[in-house]
Amino acid sequence: MLETYIVQDRWLAFAELDGDGIRLWIMRQGDVYTTRPGVSHNVYLPAYAVTHVVKHGGDGRGDDWFGDPFLDSKTKDLSEEQILANC
Q1: How many domains does the chain have?
Q2: What pLDDT score does 63 carry?
Q3: Structure pTM?
Q4: Is residue 15 part of a domain?
Q5: What is the average pLDDT across 10-14?
Q6: Positive or negative, the Cα torsion across 78, 80, 81, 87?
Q7: pLDDT value at position 60?
Q8: 29-71, pLDDT tens digit by residue?
Q9: Is residue 66 part of a domain?
Q10: Are 37 and 69 in contact (CB under 8 A)?
Q11: For residue 49, which of 21, 24, 32, 45 is within the disulfide window of CB 3.0 to 4.6 Å?
Q12: In whole angstroms, how large is the CA radius of gyration of the chain?
């Protein structure tokens, strides 16, 4: 299952596993990104952000979400200010 993220208004922060660490970046209005198969990711949306997510490429059966404790431990306590300062 793949997910394509589209930012219509404002921005979102996208974090995904990258080797032994994480890659964190900002997507802005008009940006489009499709996840990579088997790569865990987290998304942060600020107030008033307008985004669209299209799930595609799967057969519609089974789970389409899997938690990742390592990624969560690196992202869950980040404030919006920290996200913006690090991107």
Answers
A1: 1
A2: 76
A3: 0.90
A4: yes
A5: 98
A6: positive
A7: 75
A8: 999 999 998 899 999 999 999 999 999 987 877 777 888 999 9
A9: no
A10: no
A11: 45
A12: 13
